Amino acid sequence: MRTGEAVRLIFVRNLLVLLSVVAIAGCASFAKRLEVSTVSKIRVQRTTRAEVEQLLGKPRETVLGADGLTVARYFFREYRQSTDVSHFERRDHPGDIRFRSLTLKYGQSNVVEQKLHDESMTPIYRTNAWFFAGPILTPETVAFMKRDFTTEGDLVAKFGEPSSRTFDGEGRPVLVWFHVQTRETSWSDPDVQHLKVLLDERRVVRDYVLVEHALSEFEPFTLH
């Protein structure tokens, strides 16, 4: 195997570990892949919580809202290897991270009241001896954000489409971006950040947080 190809395969393996992928592509059950055909079986004002959990299992996250409301979040992610015929293109862009999320709100009767199904593809790039995925997220790059002023459009223009769209316990939109950067020869101390943004009903920033994690703590998609 050529050295470049070997390095790329090692990168893929370690990135999956870094992203806390609990099942590689093809190993998750079809239902838990959150395909459109599966999620379409869940109907607002009709499907019960018991029926959802029979279909998808227990959610990855559960958030209690006001007045007996509950928000449940399901996630699926996988590495999609580049199919480019050019070795150089595959070296510089080895693949993408596909991330799907399903957010459900249950009322007091445990029937689905709100549903949001989202999918994103985040490219993985190689520059010299570095691999990275997602927009650069630092105190400097988020300094432009102002509560009650910056819009969703401003965020997308700066960072691109978010890695995940969900909502909080009150049904307000939440956007998530993540960034991973590491040397191809060392995985002991990667730079990892994620940005979580809460929007109001005008799609304007209500609040946000930029979080940095050590490798052992990294879970870029968890929202509290």
Q: Would you tell me the structural class of the helices and strands?
A: alpha+beta
Count of discrete domains: 1
Distance between the termini: 44 Å
Order of helices and strands: HHHEEHEEEHEEEE
The geometry reads as globular
Summed over residues and divided by their number, the pLDDT gives a mean of 83
Low-confidence stretches: 20-27, 214-224
Main beta-sheet strand count, sense and barrel state: 9 strands, antiparallel
Q: Assembly type of the shown chains?
A: single chain
Count of helical regions:
5
Q: Helicity level, as a percent range?
A: 10-25%
Task: Give a structural overview.
The protein is α+β, with helices and mostly antiparallel strands and 224 residues long. It has one domain (3-217). The protein has helices at 3-18, 36-39, 49-56, 87-92, 152-159; strands spanning 61-64, 70-81, 95-106, 112-127, 130-133, 164-167, 173-183, 186-199, 205-212. A hairpin with a 5-residue loop joins β6 and β7 (173-183). The longest helix is centred in the first third of the chain and has 16 residues, at 3-18. The protein is globular.
Descriptors:
224 residues, alpha+beta, nine-stranded antiparallel β-sheet, 5 helices, disordered C terminus
